[in-house]
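Ticket #4471: structure export looks truncated?
Reporter: QA, pipeline team
Priority: medium

Steps to reproduce: submit the single chain below to the structure queue and open the exported record.
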Amino acid sequence: MTTTTTAPPTTRLGYIDNLRVLLTVLVIAHHCAVTYGALPVWYWAEPSTSPSGIALMLFVIVNQFWFMGAFFLLSGLFVAGSVDRKGPGAFARDRVIRLGVPLVAFLLVARPVLSLPQWPAARAEGETFLHFWFTVGDPGPLWFVEVLLVMSLAYAAFRALRARSRASLPAGTGAVAGRPVSLRGIAVLVGVLTVAAFLWRLAVPTGTYWELGGLPTPAYLPQYVILFVVGVLASRRGWLTGLTARQGRVALIVAVAAVGPALGTVALATAPRAGMLAQVGASLAESVFAVSMIVGLLVLFREKFSGQPAWARFAARNAFAVYVVHALVLVGVAVLLAPLTAPAGVKFLVLLVLSVPLCWLAAHLLRRVPGVARVL
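Actual output as written to the record:
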């Protein structure tokens, strides 16, 4: 990726906030899909192997290829500038508050509430309610917050160590931006993701769950780390403005074309006695799809959806709080919808349409509680 020297932007970008809102809605849709699809991995599940249930499962798998990686990239975009302004120590303390407090609150309050259907079985085995409340389950969707906190603190430590080893650059200098991002640079990113995913999955295959930390998709950790780093570098080197409209259009076309190969190669790679070639093919196809989707959407939102009317600012302001509370809203609505007899796809749509506005309403009301907006 070729670059020239200039100062980085220091203000938030409307199209990035708008894209983050879209990704947050996609997270809600993802968890609506696991509620009714053929992959029941949610607090409340009514699994279905009907055609619509299978379609929801495929929707979940395709999401997994890229959307959490996109979240980590967007998160990385503003990390370097924040450390510039606050310094590594103040940045680390801020991250512990902004990410650590919601994580602990979810573990101590939301997680036990969401796991209450398991209480009768636990009680029958002699477990006390107090032990159940404080030990049941994992961080659920807040595994993202957990991993992001670790990455943010690691970056703060890196900056602190670098500052000790040499004189720090003044804020706003030494950054780069400007010339277009080359196709070769994009291909290098795909290659790095492919190699990292292939080697990592020799030890951590797709479908692995890490009980320590409650990570549901540790097979994708290399993608998350690399894209977070790409976000940090992109903020320094102007890679977002360097992407051209044509590259964005081509990327979206490639993403659409790569969906089928990605699903097919992953199916082969996760089959019993899958060979190395299948593993390489799956890693490559996933990486092509992920990078293409992210590049395409970044350019699309920069070119077409950069404005922020009042409703968009409201949505962006509450997006993180929505991520934190959406599990409680979804499960509550799904329980109320349980008596409804309908195909899985219909129930998915009903749950999604009801839950999206309710999640933003719940987030808005929660942030009005004194002190909460400081964290959420």
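Status: closed, not a bug. The export was complete when the record was re-opened. Leaving a note from the reviewer for reference: The beta strands are 4-5, 176-177.
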